[in-house]
Amino acid sequence: MLDFFNLIISDIKISLRKKNESIISILFFIFSVLILPIIFQGDQNILKKFLIGIIWFLTLLTIIFSVEKLFENDYEDGMLDQIYISGIPMETIFLSKSLSIWIITCLPIIILSPLLLLLFNLEVDKLINIFASLLIGTPILCMIGAVTSALVLGFNKGSSVISLITLPLYIPVLIFGIEASNSEIILNEIGQEFKILIGYLLIVIAISPWIGGLALKLKYR
Amino acid sequence: MSFFEIKKISCIRGNKLLFKNLNFKLNNKELLVIKGANGSGKTTLLKILSGLLNPISGSIIVNKKNINLSKDEYFKQFEYIGHENAIKSALTVRENLNFYLKIKKSLDKKNFEKAIEIFNLKNLLDIKIENLSSGEKRRVSLSRLILSNSKIWFLDEPTNGLDKKNTLIFFKILKHHLNSNGSAIIASHDEIKIKSKNINLTLN
């Protein structure tokens, strides 16, 4: 457990030092949201109709760009070899990397999204829904992305094919994430869409460390 | 009986046969130097010996045990310094060494000051790796050998980037390691100039 936290702390520290790389994905997200009124030529009705879908799509793009080379730096500079030799299970390495990229990339998006959407006069209910659905949905996106990144590690050819194969796994998150964000808040009851998202999250948490860990172990065969 | 024994190891990378039915034994206080041209498989052999890669056939027996039966146990017995320095450029020298002390149970915190002193890293401790020269980076990487109490060292081109003075320091600690009942396997283009029981292995 201590190793798990040591790896996360180290990753976050590195990410904070490499400010340019960590901030660029967040800036991409913020600027993309802020230029939406220009794209929709100020038409508030159309903008509000598509806003939540666009937020989810931009979140997905930001995550895909961020996790693409999640393990590559460590693999190329020999650090992954050393972590492997240190006896830390690959599943732990996978989980720590997924959690650190979620903290670095997704947590700012989850916090910023409702604030940015305040600019578009969205109802408070919807802002809470977006916050909650992103909180549940983004870890799923991160872990699917991390599995893809582990699978393509060390591949020169065929990496884009593997990325395409895993792309459909993101779609249910987008569908139910958007549905959950648009759903009505019923007091004391969690909406159906949220339940599906939570279910998907639990499945991904249970399965992805094994697949990701196995993919990383294959590099040492 | 030798504590480290390689039996009929063969390896193919891509479509290229790197070596076939390789055998050798290593005892305490012995140094094995792997030589060969670029692409001859020196790094691959070192990775196989350290358990980072699997050969297509053959076995590695350490202390009468096949390493594949208990890799985690085997990993605790050696220190591996690869071709890459395996240090994080955004972190300082101190942070990198502390990171290793936290994750590698075979490293000893008590040796921290000694490692810093031997490789003259005191003035570099709080400098980020990205601001160091390649020789300084190699010294940071090699300082892990002092932190380690491992009996076996696997080193890939350890003197790469080192100046004459630091190369001599490295030879000195290598000799001390061998005299202390340790053993080492080194892949190197450079000549390893120390008086010890050397075995040379040249890959074609």
Keywords, separated by commas or semicolons:
heterodimer; A: 221 residues; mainly alpha; 80% helix; 0% strand; globular; B: 204 residues; alpha/beta; four-stranded antiparallel beta sheet; 28% strand
Plain-language structure description:
The complex is a heterodimer of chains A (221) and B (204). Chain A is mainly α. Chain A is built from eleven helices and no strands. Chain A has helices at 2-17, 19-34, 36-39, 44-67, 72-76, 79-85, 90-118, 124-152, 159-166, 171-182, 192-218. Chain A is globular. The mean pLDDT of chain A is 88. Chain B is of the alpha/beta class and 204 residues long. Helices cover 30% and strands 28% of the residues of chain B. Chain B contains six helices and nine strands. Chain B has a five-stranded parallel beta sheet, sandwiched between helices. In chain B, helix 4 runs antiparallel to helix 5. The radius of gyration of chain B is 17 Å and the shape is globular. The two termini of chain B are 28 Å apart. Chains A and B meet through helix 1 and helix 6 of A and helix 3 of B.
